[in-house]
Specification:
The protein is of the alpha+beta class. The protein has one domain (about 30-150). About 45% of the residues lie in helices and about 20% in strands. It contains 4 helices and 4 strands, in the order H-H-E-E-H-H-E-E. The protein has helices at about 5-10, 30-60, 90-100, 105-120; strands at about 65-70, 80-85, 130-135, 140-150. A hairpin with a 5-residue loop joins strand 1 (about 65-70) and strand 2 (about 80-85). Helix 2 packs across helix 3 (about 90-100) and helix 2 packs across helix 4 (about 105-120). The longest helix has about 30 residues, at about 30-60.
């Protein structure tokens, strides 16, 4: 060890890193932990999809038709449904809320879709029309409003 390194350790012993053991490979990934995380992630995704599927009839009656969805697998898995919006009466929306009274995910989705539906009506861009709503359900949920060129609609 150089005199400068010895002086650094003497003034700040916490800054010293332990030397790796001789003849042992350093592994950055614990494969058992990764397998455990993947199993938990897959289970959470399945629970999310089950609640999501149960909410779909109510969401459709409120005017939100599922057109496609994505599942992102990772340490923090995500479900990303895409919805097309067709305005419905307040009565239909109220009935959808009642249908979702025992489905927290469905309630959250309906609330996000209704808010996004109000916002998309306020956004006007020449040459572009509203296409669909995407909701990214993961650790940090988000909502995307997608617009396309009028020629593409």
């Amino acid at each position: 060890m150089s005199p400068a390194e010895q002086a650094l350790i003497a003034t700040d012993p916490e800054s010293a890193l332990p030397a790796p053991a001789q003849g042992k490979a350093v592994s950055f990934f614990n494969t058992d932990k990764l397998a455990e995380l993947q199993a938990v992630g897959a289970e959470k995704v399945q629970q999310l999809i089950t609640s999501f599927q149960q909410a779909l009839p109510a969401l459709k009656s409120a005017g939100y038709e599922l057109t496609e969805f994505e599942v992102e697998i990772g340490v923090t898995p995500k479900l990303i449904p895409h919805f097309r919006h067709a305005a419905q009466s307040d009565e239909n929306v109220g009935a959808a809320r009642e249908m979702l009274k025992d489905n927290k995910l469905g309630q959250m989705l309906l609330g996000a879709l209704l808010k996004a539906g109000e916002i998309h009506k306020q956004i006007k861009v020449a040459g572009f029309g509203f296409s669909h709503i995407e909701i990214e359900m993961g650790l940090i949920p988000s909502v995307r409003l997608q617009y396309k060129n009028d020629a593409a609609l």
